[in-house]
Design goal:
It is a single chain. This protein has 19 helices and 21 strands. The protein is α/β, with parallel strands linked by helices. The chain has three domains: 23-219, Peroxisomal Thiolase, Chain A, domain 1; 242-361 and 419-700, Thiolase/Chalcone synthase (Peroxisomal Thiolase, Chain A, domain 1), CATH 3.40.47.10; 364-414, no CATH class. Strands 11-10-12-13-7-14-21-20-15-16-18 form an eleven-stranded mixed beta sheet, with helices on both faces. A six-stranded mixed beta sheet has the order 1-6-5-2-3-4, with helices on both faces. A two-stranded antiparallel ribbon has the order 8-9. The protein starts with 49 loop residues before the first helix and ends in a 21-residue tail after the last strand.
């Protein structure tokens, strides 16, 4: 999911000499040779547990014994990790986890970086790790780092096939120098001899522009009874609970989590006309028309992009100016998330930062538009419809087009590339706050936030992370997104009104929500305030339609969530629905909920709501808005209301559950003998479904630090 993790990442051309300082001391220019061409590629691998593959009679190319990811956090412009020591440490730990010593490895596939300092660090780490081995005992290959995001996967496929065919991968032309003994290059077509009857074994390296690198340990598959896999199960009853120990958010009319809760308690939406700086109505707005070039709606949940970095970060002006708006927004929310923690290295142990985001940031789109603008001007000037205009009027028309559409061209710099990387949102958080955490961008359309949460929870439960930051960010109030959604007929002609009889679509919104997570026992040990406990994350993909929701797919996600816990759906008090406000979407979601939540000894009606009635549909950040609202409601002991609900849609069939949708905040009584419980749903285009089960902390019930006061004040 990280656009740069598998390869060295794009380079900033030949600007500057190797190691030369960037303007303002922001860091070194990327020092890739200017004559090295880029490569393109696409590929995939199909993975199964070895026991399952054996049961199914699959052809197995290789087995993955271990996969280790490490990140070197460094503030400033993104750059590769040059640490040989950290690479050696990661490789040694990965081999220990695989139960294999360095002396059992016959082949090493390097990342193939085009950055000399990074390649030198990798060679030094290899020389240290394999020191003392016989000369020529390790064959060294080199991946194609020019393929960027595809590079690591290409190396994995190449080495797996070589293990299966028992021949070393053919050496690539132009490979870099050897680290010295015990390394050598393979001969063309050289057979891969088994070392004294032991299995053939290889390692694969990968690295990214943001400072992350990967170490994979692969082994040939021999037809034998598969061993019992290591216990890293995510499912099953009583899955490890995960505590939310920090939270932050910024949405329309709500600059932080406290303001977010005040907006919710008020019952008043923050949706309204988006500013002209966002939507040039003369160019892009045409009320009542369904068009490929205009939007019929101009409402949104706009959030101003921060114009300066948080006070606790020393980000240089030129670098901050080059950042995408989504990156700036995430940094601002991270400042709230980490408030009160030490400035540098605020968290100890290994971590992961998983942020749901669109993979095409606004800055990248704008840069592309500027590249083709000259061609667009020629096209406009040659349109037959303008043939009757004088040359002067055509010239004025083109000049007006340029004024309206062209942005200020940015000077080439290392920071310019940073602002175009979606994976850079997570990397910014890890680097600027000194987190030893692997940064990942997660893209699952409107379910991206909960998909990121799924990644984070899985890492905590598997023991590969000691803490995690998860959430989502997107600026959906843009002319591009509004025109696109309008062309598909998805936008409301008025404002987002989930579950209303007159609901006719959603309203876009900007926003970011982030959560700091730990295993529950670790959070209690550390004395953390627990805002809520994530008990389960269920996921599915109905894979039937790009945009139409599916009852069966949503039900499967809910069933998989409840398979992980020891309580029944009838004990869940509140459902934070995806609640887009589309007629089909609302009906399908309630129908799916009825399959799980109807029946059983329910003490009262299931309450249902949606944050979108207040803040709009924030796309990749939608799940984070729903989770933030739910956690704050649990802490406050208040059932949150819906806004803009005038007449409940009778086709929803709420009575069958039974369920209610409130328009005013109400007390959330604690049921006898159990904590308050809630569920959060989020669904994405392409058929992906998520359902998260959350409950209040059994050991922190009652007034506590961070509690939400009933009068509407935010977290203390």
């Amino acid at each position: 999911p990280d656009a740069g993790t598998a390869g060295p990442g794009p380079r900033a051309g030949a600007a500057g000499a190797p190691g030369q300082a960037a303007p303002g001391g922001a860091g070194p220019y990327l020092d890739a040779p200017p004559d090295r061409p880029v490569g393109e590629g696409v590929g995939a691998v199909l993975l199964k547990r070895l026991s399952t593959a054996g049961r199914d009679g699959d052809r197995v190319y290789a087995t993955v014994l271990d996969c280790a990811l490490r990140h070197e956090p460094r503030p400033g412009c993104f750059r590769h990790s040059y640490s040989a020591g950290l690479r050696q440490e990661t490789a040694a730990a990965s081999l220990r986890a695989a139960g294999a010593g360095p002396d059992t490895v016959q082949y090493v596939e390097c990342a193939g970086s085009s950055v000399p300092r990074e390649a030198a660090a990798e060679r030094e780490a290899l020389a240290r790790l394999h020191a003392g081995r016989a000369d020529g005992s390790v064959v060294l290959g080199e991946g194609d780092g020019r393929a960027f995001a595809h590079a690591g996967l290409a190396s994995l496929a190449r080495v797996a096939r070589a293990l299966h065919e028992r021949r070393y991968p053919a050496p690539r032309p132009g490979a870099g120098p050897l680290p010295g003994p015990p390394f050598r290059r393979a001969r063309a077509g050289e057979e891969w001899a088994a070392p004294g009857g032991a299995p053939r074994r290889a390692v694969v390296h990968g690295a990214s522009l943001t400072g992350t690198f990967c170490h994979l340990v692969l082994e040939e598959h021999r037809r034998r009874a598969p061993a019992v896999p290591r216990s890293r199960s995510r499912g099953g009853a009583r899955a490890v609970p995960v505590a939310v120990v920090g939270l932050g958010g910024r949405f329309a009319g709500a600059p932080d989590a406290a303001a977010f809760w005040r907006v919710v308690r008020s019952g008043r939406t923050r949706l309204g006309p988006v500013p002209r700086s966002v939507l040039d109505r003369e160019l892009y707005h045409s009320p009542g028309a369904l068009s490929l070039t205009h939007t019929y709606a101009d409402q949104g949940g706009h959030v101003p992009v921060p114009d300066g970095p948080p006070e606790d970060l020393a980000v240089l002006g030129p670098r901050y100016a080059a950042m995408d708006g989504a990156q700036r927004l995430a940094l601002a929310v991270a400042a709230e998330l980490f408030a009160g923690l030490p400035r540098r290295a605020p968290l100890t142990g290994r971590g992961v930062v998983a942020v749901g985001t669109t993979l095409g940031l606004t800055r990248e789109r704008r840069a592309h538009a500027e590249l083709v603008l000259s061609g667009l001007e020629d096209t406009v000037a040659a349109l037959p419809a303008l043939a009757g205009l004088s040359s002067l009027r055509r010239k004025r028309l083109v000049e007006r087009l340029r004024e309206r559409t062209a942005g200020a061209a940015a000077e080439p710099s290392p920071a310019l590339l940073d602002g175009c990387l979606a994976s850079g949102v997570a990397a910014l958080l890890a680097n600027e706050y000194g987190l030893c955490a692997v940064p990942l961008a997660v893209e699952a359309a409107c379910a991206s936030s909960l998909a990121a949460l799924d990644v984070a929870v899985a890492a905590l439960r598997a023991g590969t992370a000691d803490f995690a930051v998860a959430g989502g960010v997107e600026l959906a109030c843009t002319a591009r997104d509004m025109v696109l959604c309008s062309a598909l007929g998805l936008l409301s002609h008025s404002r987002n009104a989930p579950f209303d009889a007159a609901a006719d679509g959603f309203t876009p919104g900007d926003g970011c929500g982030l959560f700091l997570l730990k295993r529950y026992d670790d959070a209690r040990r550390d004395g953390d305030t627990v805002h809520g406990v994530i008990r389960a994350v269920g996921a599915s993909n109905d894979a039937k339609s790009l945009i139409a929701p599916d009852v069966a797919g949503q039900v499967r996600a809910m069933q998989r969530a409840f398979a992980q816990v020891d309580f029944e759906p009838c004990t869940v008090d509140y459902l934070e629905a995806h609640g887009t406000g589309t007629k089909v979407g609302d009906r399908v979601e309630i129908a799916a909920a009825a399959r799980l939540y109807a029946g059983g000894p329910r003490a009262g009606a299931l309450r249902i709501g949606s944050a979108k009635s207040f803040f709009g549909h924030t796309f990749a950040a939608a799940g984070s808005a729903g989770l933030l609202r739910t956690l704050l409601a649990l802490r406050a002991g208040t059932l949150p209301p819906n806004a803009l609900l005038r007449t409940l849609n009778p086709a929803l069939g709420l009575a069958a559950i039974p369920a209610e949708i409130a328009t005013r905040p109400e007390p959330w009584p604690r049921p006898p003998g159990r904590p308050r419980r809630a569920a959060v749903s989020s669904f994405g285009t392409g058929g992906i479904n998520y359902h998260v089960l959350v409950e209040e902390d059994r050991d922190q019930r009652g007034p506590a630090a961070g509690a939400i006061q009933e009068k509407g004040h935010g977290p203390r």
